[in-house]
Amino acid sequence: MNDRFNFYLTGSATLKFHQGIKTALALILGALLLSGCGSEDKFPGSSDNQDPDPLVADIPLFYIERNLRTDETGAIIEDDLKDPLTFRGGARLYMKARADQSAATTDISARAVSGNVDVRDLDVSPDGKFVVFALREEETEDRPTTWNLWEYDIENDQICKLIVSPLADSGHDLTPRYLPSNRLVFASTRQKKTRQLLSDQGKGGYSHLVERGSNTMLALNLHTLRISRSSTSAACPTVTSGDIEQITFNQSHDFYPAVMNDGTIVFTRWENTGNNDALTLYKVNPDGSGLHILYGHHSQNTGTDGTQLRFVRSNVLPDGDLFVLARPDETTFYGGDFVRIDVDRYIDNTQPVANSGGSGPAQTTVTGKNVRTDGSLSRGGYFSAFYPLWDGTSRAVVSWSRCRLNIGDTTQPCTDDNINNPAATIAPAAYGIWTYDYASDTQTPVITARAGVVYTDVVLATPRTDLPFCRITTQMRI
């Protein structure tokens, strides 16, 4: 691992990096000793000896549903990764009592605010008790709006806005992910520390814009947030300005953070200076120390037949491996494939870290589907969301659209005969939610696929108290 770091850091920077690592590890371990991952309860209804199947137990499923956007001619508008701030509307956050077609469904977003809203970026806390997401209300001429962070308390059936006005109006907040010790990491345009430095220099505090490609888009940087929860009531948690810290500094977007099993953060950085235009994976400690490139600066054209491929929405598999949603910047299919990346041995798809013994490639599909990412016919369809069950199996809940063809006035599956039909054209995506075994490539429907609909996020509120940082806490207590 030192070979990777020293490749990018030399001299005093290297020394500073190693000192930062030691400091960060001490801070992380200290926080873990205080609070760990929360409850270590079994699944609801389980015995002390064995956890039941989370698809059978009453473990709630949460998902975000939205329509594919179309223009005045009915043509599908491309989904743009680099434009996460725009309000698109018509989205809903739903909860099913369990991952079953017959389970009752509740519109959670309607309980937050009424009217037209946009919702994105679901995550579930390690103890399975809370779900966090970003929501934005439709703005009017006299009432501008921003993306805000909201949390749903499953046990107490309560929804709360985490950062309340006027603090909430300091910037757009999105892509939240839970850290240990009642903390979040999220992307924000508030750029708290950057503004303070400007103020200290006698300059106006402002959020800078992305470096090129837009004259109006505010840049996102990573921040952390400490949530103060009441131990005696179900009152909404409180957040003050002092609870928010900026931990990355970039002139374009730092977004889509993921918390790895060891508590470190992997995120996507838009490298957007000079001739660069890459969405590259970086890594940082929760206190902002140890920032370094992790993977992919020279792997931006590793899609089907060498086409563009971007790495976003990082997450971790139960075995500890990193995986990402790999797709182009813009696509009318609103998805791509989920790809496992060997970041321990590679800095790029065919470039191993020195002395790692890697023989390549670093990128391998998590799914068993033949997914193409170049816009051509994808017999494996497309994935837009993927969340492991964390039950010791190779199962996940996913949003997936099968391959479909328009033939005349009907939509048909992509069989050999249909593909060879000269009248066939590629049909728009039609996503459904499935339970999916990525080892055996088998799936069962949870929500039936519908034309023109995409489920952009899906999570199952499974407790994950056996994560490595939870085990560290348990051992320390002993």
Q: Strand portion, in percent?
A: 25-35%
Low-confidence stretches: 5-35, 39-49, 197-207, 472-478
Largest sheet: 4 strands, antiparallel
Secondary-structure content class: mainly beta
Silhouette: globular
Compute the number of helices.
6
Q: What's the helical proportion of residues?
A: 10-25%
Tell me the span between the first and last alpha carbons: 31 Å
**Average pLDDT taken over every residue:** 85
Side by side, the strands of the main sheet go: 4-3-1-31
Tell me what the structure shows.
- Helix content is 12%, strand content 34%.
- Helix 2 packs across helix 6.
- The protein is mostly beta strands.
- Mean pLDDT is 85; it is low at 5-35, 39-49, 197-207 and 472-478.
- The two termini are 31 Å apart.
- Strand 24 and strand 25 form a beta hairpin.
- It has helices at 2-8, 11-35, 109-112, 192-200, 416-419, 468-477, and strands at 61-67, 79-80, 92-96, 105-107, 117-124, 130-137, 148-153, 158-161, 173-179, 183-188, 221-226, 244-246, 254-259, 265-271, 278-284, 292-295, 310-316, 322-327, 330-331, 337-341, 346-348, 351-352, 363-365, 382-388, 395-401, 404-407, 410-413, 425-426, 431-437, 442-447, 453-460.
Keywords:
478 residues; 34% strand; 31 strands; single chain; mainly beta; four-stranded antiparallel β-sheet
